[in-house]
Amino acid sequence: MPIKHAALRQIKKDSKRQERNQAVRSELKTITKRLHALLQAKKLDDAKTLIRTVASKYDRAVTRGVIHRNVAARYKSRLAQMINRS
C-alpha cells in the first residue's frame, strides 16, 4: 500500500478513470453488436440510422481518450463497408 498521500490520490483517480473507460468500451461493444444484428436480419434502413449513432459514440470515445483515433476510424470504416455491401 502506498504511503504518500499523492499516491493514494492517484490510485483513486486511476480507478475512477478505469471504471469510466470500461463503461464506455462496454457501450461501444453493445451498440456495435446491435448494428451487426440488424445487418444479419437485413434491416438496412434501421442499420443506416444506427450507424450515425455508432460513429458518434466512437468519436466521443476518442475525444475522451478511451480508444485511439485510428482504432475508431478502422471500426467505423469496417461497419460502413458492411452496410454498403448489404
CATH superfamily: Ribosomal protein S20
Number of domains: 1
Largest sheet: none
Q: Let me know the number of strands.
A: 0
Description of the molecule:
By secondary structure, the protein is mostly helical. It has helices at residues 5-40, 44-64, 69-85. The chain is elongated. The N and C termini lie far apart (55 Å).
Helix-strand blueprint:
Blueprint: H1 5-40, H2 44-64, H3 69-85
Helix pairs in contact: 1-2, 2-3
List keywords for this structure.
single chain, 86 residues, mainly alpha, Methane Monooxygenase Hydroxylase, Chain G, domain 1, 3 helices
Brief characterization of the structure:
This protein has 86 residues and is mainly alpha-helical. Helices cover 86% and strands 0% of the residues.
